[in-house]
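Input record, target 12 of the design panel.
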């Protein structure tokens, strides 16, 4: 791929040692997310498999540099490696990986919300799952949530953007109802309501909980996708704390010792200026934080 100077600088910044377990050259396709969830629920170690899956819509990969200290960080006094950081905790337990949206370079697709989450949840790109544009997911490509529900696991999709419910997952919602699957799709007004819903599901008996917070995308579109924008930077840090509280709620379950939880955080795309969707690395590069190592790279 041909990159301009600002793009090269961005990739070099992401490759600064100490933050990510891999490099921009070995970045995982965002489709690796679904595969990791599938494998987790196949793992029979005597404990009950469970999953807490958290989406930060529109969080750029470089925002992880606000949470984890890079090897050449020169500013002291920054609250890196906070004991209350979800990403830092997951990185210590499993890993923090660079991932990418927008398809393989040979078959690019838009770095947009519907396309991103559909690739993340099905484990295949839009060329297969059908979400290359703003259209419903193909029925032959279930989300990992529907697969688990088909195996009798209780799964929940929690989100705010109306189009998830009226476009991308419209048919999947109908299938889940028709087949009486233990899969629910629930819409919330804002990140605060979503956080409460997560806590309610964590305290209940849902096996696989997935939800998407909107603050980074919303702030990016209104005031700019950039760490130079305090609103954008602050909301990624705040969501990192929200995710930490959700992880603490998981640990406080009375049955926690008998359960094996996979916890992952990811974003669907990055952004630049007040937009995303292009093949620029600012838009393409995303991250996956996981409490279990992903792949062998
Ligand atoms: Zn998005």
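The sequence produced for target 12 reads:
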């Amino acid at each position: 791929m041909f990159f301009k100077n600002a793009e090269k600088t961005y990739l070099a910044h992401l490759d600064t040692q100490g933050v990510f377990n891999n490099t921009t050259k070995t970045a995982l396709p965002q489709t690796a997310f679904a595969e990791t969830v599938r494998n987790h629920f196949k793992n029979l170690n005597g404990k009950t498999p469970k999953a807490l899956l958290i989406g930060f819509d529109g969080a750029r990969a470089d925002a992880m540099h606000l949470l984890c200290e890079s090897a050449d960080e020169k500013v002291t006094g920054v609250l890196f490696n906070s004991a209350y950081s979800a990403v830092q905790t997951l990185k210590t337990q499993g890993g923090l990986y660079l991932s990418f949206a927008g398809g393989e370079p040979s078959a690019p697709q838009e770095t947009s919300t519907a396309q991103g989450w559909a690739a993340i949840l099905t484990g295949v790109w839009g060329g297969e799952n059908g979400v290359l544009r703003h259209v419903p997911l193909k029925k032959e490509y279930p989300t990992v949530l529907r697969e688990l529900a088909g195996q009798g696991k209780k799964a929940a999709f929690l989100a705010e953007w109306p189009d998830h419910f009226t476009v991308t997952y419209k048919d999947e919602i109908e299938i889940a109802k028709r087949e009486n699957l233990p899969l629910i799709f629930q819409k919330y007004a804002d990140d605060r309501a979503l956080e409460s819903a997560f806590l309610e599901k964590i305290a209940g008996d849902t096996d696989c909980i997935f939800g998407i917070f909107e603050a980074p995308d919303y702030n990016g579109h209104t005031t700019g996708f950039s760490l130079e924008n305090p609103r954008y930077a602050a909301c990624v840090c705040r969501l990192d704390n929200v995710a930490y509280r959700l992880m603490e709620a998981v640990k406080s379950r009375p049955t926690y010792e008998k359960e094996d939880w996979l916890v992952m955080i990811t974003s669907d795309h990055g952004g630049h200026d007040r937009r995303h969707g292009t093949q620029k690395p600012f838009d393409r590069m995303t991250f996956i934080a996981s409490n279990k190592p992903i792949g062998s790279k």
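Residues 57-58, 113, 217, 268-269 surround zinc ion (CB under 6 Å).
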